[in-house]
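Re: [ENG-882] Designed sequences occasionally contain unexpected residues at chain ends

Forwarding the minimal case from QA. Structure tokens:
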């Protein structure tokens, strides 16, 4: 750490330092390790460096903590095409005030130089053949499938069950619905819906696995058939490239050692950059398995000043270590990490981020499956923490979609990128109070859950809507309306020849004033594309207002406004399902009121679920029984959204942000006027005011 100089550093000195980075002029270095698949040069470096530095600049320029124009991130070098890519930056930020600091005390600035490099092992060995990869993929697929089903069971069924039995033990004032009866009924509906959804999902996954089991070993021989290779060769080669490194890690110890050597060299290079500074290792997916083995089994992380290991979507439990024939090595990464910490003044900290729908990480990291389940439960209810030891756990929400969650950790600004930045810059970086941090995380979870709810509603609408008779007739008319101008243009340029029958040419889409099967499929695809695109646009805009506005909406206004899109999607899906049932499976009049009540209950639940669903919390690392007791004691009075929004810390921060609010443009001005009570300041009052960032 260095105190900021009074004058700006000479650019020539910065370039000289970058030219000889081994002199230890950096304060911290971040080593990025990619996951499975063929990573190109600088791919993982750009994927993570850009969001990290962008958010870091935003965080360090926050005026609430005393930042001014001198604060922020300055890029010193960005060598992303050389043999050893390197991105370096200088970051300046206001130092965190101590609790006893005077309100008017001058702000002290801190300056740190950061180096970001990558450990890319995808080209460190000769790849395996397609036959080797797919022979191994069949048995391994079942291990991945069973872990995925356990994760889905935990998320869809066990979590509602734990919620159902935990809420009655909580004080009524801590409940979101403020009523134990309503809370019990809501939790019961969640459990029933979760079980009803899990059963068909599990059945589909199992059937798919059964079908793929005999197909995977036959893929390589089938590639010898020219027609098959032409039709599916590119897809199969792409799949082989994605899982080929996983096969090499598990089946070929020599190649696995080559992967670890790349990580080890990158860590040693980072140590040369920082001298006595800190080295941070950040690993995704298979890279997490490679990094944990390298750090805690093959090298001394303290000798290289490794202070932090961050894993995201970690496949540590899934992949374990390489397999030597005839050898049954027991791999215990958590115990290895704890052993490496023993007797160290600066032990390696480990933070693990896993998305709730990521089938590859499939939850927390532990040395045994039962321990992993206990640690998963504590991520939602820390009071239930057991003696299962392990790293700091972050259960996160990426995009609320299975499989896609594994690839989008870098887009999770609040739950993944920000904690990484705080680890890099250290405890001097100021941050929000626990109440404000809880609010930010809770609202972020609500937004991501709304994304998933709206996605499901969009699919339901798209599948059923074209089949309703009136809508089908309307879409048929739309086809005719769209085809008519095309026919007119064709007739205009066709001369004396007969104009082509465009409407008739689209006859496969409609017949007798209704859509055909193909017309239904095409219409469903177009409706789904439109609704899903709108949902993503809305969710992205809501996330930007939540995370990137210097003065975000108050909690009440945010909850009210952001619930409107979810209400439209859910009610729209309910209306479409009602008319579909009335058309294809009409209910007797005497049963219609009961059916209407059921529709109202399910619709209300789908709308409110995102708002009142349990949200995960960060569970501190546990390396001893004493730390487990601390986790349980800290969870005795859990925060809730209603308590946090009424806290003095949140009220003071919101008031301070409103004081610093300076909207630019008519839209921002209107927004500030309506929701923050902002009013233009008199010219005389601001004429001599110092200019702020």
């Amino acid at each position: 750490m260095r105190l900021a100089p009074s004058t700006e550093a000479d650019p020539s000195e910065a370039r000289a330092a970058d030219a000889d980075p081994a002199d230890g002029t950096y304060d911290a270095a971040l080593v990025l390790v990619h996951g499975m698949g063929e990573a190109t040069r600088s791919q993982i470096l750009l994927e993570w460096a850009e969001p990290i530095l962008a958010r870091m600049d935003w965080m360090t320029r926050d005026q609430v903590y005393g930042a001014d124009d001198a604060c922020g991130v300055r890029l010193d070098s960005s060598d992303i095409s050389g043999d050893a890519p390197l991105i370096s930056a200088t970051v300046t930020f206001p130092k965190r005030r101590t609790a006893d600091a005077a309100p008017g005390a001058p702000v002290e600035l801190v300056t740190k130089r950061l180096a970001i490099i990558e450990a890319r092992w995808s080209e460190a060995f000769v790849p395996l053949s397609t036959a080797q990869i797919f022979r191994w993929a069949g048995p391994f697929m079942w291990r991945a499938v069973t872990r995925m089903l356990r994760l889905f069971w935990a998320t869809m069924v066990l979590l509602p069950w734990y919620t159902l039995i935990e809420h009655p033990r909580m004080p009524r004032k801590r409940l979101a619905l403020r009523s134990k009866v309503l809370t019990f009924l809501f939790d019961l509906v969640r459990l029933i819906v979760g079980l009803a959804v899990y059963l068909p999902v599990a059945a589909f996954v199992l059937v798919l696995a059964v079908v793929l089991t005999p197909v995977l070993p036959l893929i390589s021989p089938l590639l010898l058939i020219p027609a098959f290779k032409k039709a599916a060769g590119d897809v199969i080669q792409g799949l082989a490239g994605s899982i080929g490194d996983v096969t090499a890690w598990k089946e070929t110890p020599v190649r696995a050692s080559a992967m670890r050597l790349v990580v080890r060299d990158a860590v040693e290079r980072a140590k040369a950059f920082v001298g006595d500074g800190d080295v941070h290792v950040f690993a995704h997916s298979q890279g997490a398995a490679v990094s944990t083995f390298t750090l805690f089994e093959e090298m001394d992380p303290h000798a290289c000043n490794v202070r932090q290991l961050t894993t995201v979507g970690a496949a540590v439990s899934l992949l374990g270590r390489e397999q030597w024939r005839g050898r049954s090595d027991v791999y215990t990464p958590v115990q290895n990490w704890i052993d490496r910490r023993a007797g160290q003044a600066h032990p390696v900290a480990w933070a693990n981020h896993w998305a709730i729908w990521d089938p590859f990480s499939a939850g927390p990291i532990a040395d045994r499956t039962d321990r992993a389940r206990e640690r998963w439960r504590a991520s939602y209810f820390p009071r239930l923490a057991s003696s299962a030891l392990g790293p700091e756990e972050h259960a996160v929400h990426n995009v609320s979609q299975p499989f896609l969650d594994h690839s989008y950790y870098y887009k999770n600004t609040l739950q993944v990128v920000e904690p990484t930045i705080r680890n890099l810059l250290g405890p001097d970086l100021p941050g929000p109070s626990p109440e404000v941090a809880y609010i930010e995380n809770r609202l972020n979870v609500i937004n991501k859950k709304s994304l998933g709810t709206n996605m499901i509603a969009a699919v339901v609408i798209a599948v059923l809507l074209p089949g309703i008779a009136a809508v089908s007739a309307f879409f048929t008319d739309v086809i005719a309306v769209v085809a008519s101008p095309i026919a007119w243009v064709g007739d205009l340029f066709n001369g004396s020849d007969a104009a082509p029958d465009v409407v008739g040419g689209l006859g496969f889409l409609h017949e007798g004033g209704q859509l055909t099967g193909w017309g239904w499929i095409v219409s469903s695809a177009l409706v789904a594309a439109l609704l899903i695109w709108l949902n993503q646009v809305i969710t992205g805009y809501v996330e930007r207002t939540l995370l990137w506005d210097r003065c975000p909406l108050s909690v009440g206004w945010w909850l009210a406004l952001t619930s409107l899109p979810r209400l439209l999607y859910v009610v729209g899906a309910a209306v479409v399902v009602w008319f579909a049932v009335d058309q294809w499976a009409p209910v007797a009049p005497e049963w219609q009121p009961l059916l209407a009540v059921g529709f109202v209950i399910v619709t209300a639940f789908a709308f409110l679920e995102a708002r009142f669903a349990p949200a995960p919390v960060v569970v501190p690392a546990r390396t001893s029984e004493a730390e487990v007791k601390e986790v349980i004691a800290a969870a005795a009075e859990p925060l809730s959204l209603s308590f946090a929004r009424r806290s003095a810390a949140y009220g003071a921060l919101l008031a301070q942000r409103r004081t610093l609010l300076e909207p630019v443009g008519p839209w921002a001005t209107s927004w500030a006027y309506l929701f923050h009570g902002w009013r233009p300041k008199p010219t005389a009052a601001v004429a001599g005011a110092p200019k702020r960032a």
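QA comment: On inspection the terminal residues look reasonable. The longest strand covers residues 109-119. Proposing we downgrade this to a documentation issue.
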